[in-house]
Amino acid sequence: MNDNNKKIHIFRSEVKELLHLMIHSLYSNKEIFLRELISNSSDAIEKIRFEKLYNPEKYTKNLYIPKIQISINKKEKKIIISDNGIGMTSQEVIKNLGTIAKSGTKSFLNQIQNIKNKEKNEFIGQFGVGFYSSFIVSDIVSVYTKHASNKTKYGTLWISKGKGEYSVETVHMEEYGTKIILSLKPSEQEFLENWKIKQIIKKYSDHISIPIEIENYDEKTKTISWEKINEAQALWTQNKNNITKESYQKFYTYITHDTEKPLIWSHNKVEGKQEYINLLYIPKKATWDMWHRENKHGLKLYVKHVFIMDEATQFLPNYLRFVKGIIDSQDLPLNISREILQDSAVTHILRKTLTKRILKMLDNLSIQNNKKYQKFWNIFGLVIKEGIAEDSENQKIIANLLRFSSIQTNNKEQNLSLKKYTENMITEQKKIYFITSDSYKSALNSPHLEIFKDKNIDVLLLSDKIDEWMMNYLTEFNNIKFQSVSKADDSLEKLISTKNNDNNDNELNNFIAKIKKILNNKIKDARITYRLKNTPAIVLTDSNDMSTQMAKIFSAAGQPIPKIKYILEINPTHPLIKKIKKVKNEQEFSNWIELLLEQSILAEKGSLDNPHIFINRINKLFIL
Fold this sequence. Notes:
By secondary structure, the protein is an alpha+beta fold. The chain has 4 domains: 3-228, Histidine kinase-like ATPase, C-terminal domain (Heat Shock Protein 90, 2-Layer Sandwich); 235-359, Ribosomal Protein S5, domain 2; 403-488, Rossmann fold, CATH 3.40.50.11260; 502-622, Heat shock protein 90, C-terminal domain (Four Helix Bundle (Hemerythrin (Met), subunit A), Up-down Bundle), CATH 1.20.120.790. It has 21 helices and 22 strands. The strands form 4 sheets. A 9-stranded mixed β-sheet has the order 1-6-5-4-7-3-2-8-9, with helices on one face. Helix 9 (345-368) packs parallel to helix 11 (395-401). Residues 101-105, 117-128 and 499-503 have low confidence and may be disordered.
């Protein structure tokens, strides 16, 4: 070691915060440090395998036997974890071990401080900063590393106590790869036992396809031997009839670091025009970054059993980003890049097939185990809704997967399928009715629903932000059209029975004419309605106009929106309307009509452009 070239660096603030959490907060499952370091070693070996195939001229052509080795030095209280993976350059050491170069860091740190200790341990793996878990058990961590392309006899040594700074220096190294030395805390001596290390590896890393060896020292013969601990065979390449449920679950935990077991999975080997294996998992819970669209989500890609890349997003549409697993293709070239992968005909076929397989898997779950499917929907329903707009080819099966609240389910939980809704439609009903609103409560209590409750016609209550956007693409289900109850529609009028044809009543006609004159260009139209029972008036948008809810979405996104001109519908049977009809004073009558419009818009939008005028108008009418 040459002290002259040693340089001290300060950790970035987010790493300091993370290290503080590691050292002071995470005690529930300390053994995860070994799982994370082995996972990193495995990734490094997968990378060198790929590089040797893709850029063979850069690397030596000697026979390559990948391995991860673990040694224990009880006397010095150290664990040494070595691999012959790709290693790191000095610049990569600073970049990878001194900073967290991943979007959503602040969000991650905020979340990790507000969850249970057990789940904190799993978050570390999901976020990809597992190396820092070394400091849970170690006073000092030393990393010796040399990049495989480095032809010199020197590598890099990184050392830190996890207290705000680290040192980097050039050291003599013959072989490429990485060696991590953990100087254990006095309280963590249990990890100096071979049996304990074996137990942890069997628990977390048994299915890693790279041999993991532990050093055994024979006191009698004074010789060293290496014992392979793990199975070292890729699980997905095995015959699925020979794989246990527990093995599938353990492999899922290994690739996702999830605390929960998967909800369901599908393992298939396909032969024919396309040859590939896929192992796909549906999780029970969402990852912390599912809504961070800048973070990548995707499958692990292997070609001919050789690891190519993580987070290959090209094989699944974005609305299935929660799916985890691997795809192992026999048809893609080993030297494929993300750019070529995007345009590959093989990729397009695989994407199409895998998408259909996942949707079918979910459809079967909804039929065979509705309770389990409901758990899935409660977590991932919002993401599935994106598919209606994104995937027109599979829209029919996606529509089958949708779940809704409705008047008749009388439950905020979305548990009504469209199939069930259409089966329950009354004889006269020709459309699927729905309402979009800001919340379940406001949807349920909307005056638009009064006639539907009276006629026992169910209405879907849509209150997720995505719903209005989704319904622009979901126009029908099994040849039955959707209809918003807050938009004008002839089919609704046919459902409304009027015993007395009051529309021809001269008195009402004159009343409507007066309303139109007063409101003039503030409204698109005014008319009588019999859809209301307890409300004097409502406003509707015309069938081809932008809905109120869509206007809210545009406004929230800072987009310009056209001024909505509403249709004002008056309930002639309401006592207030009967009272207004009798008002002789023109100014008073005008105030009442303006008030009707304003309160109807307030009920529809939840706000008014000028609430002060509205309040003044009410006050004037109160004192008359």
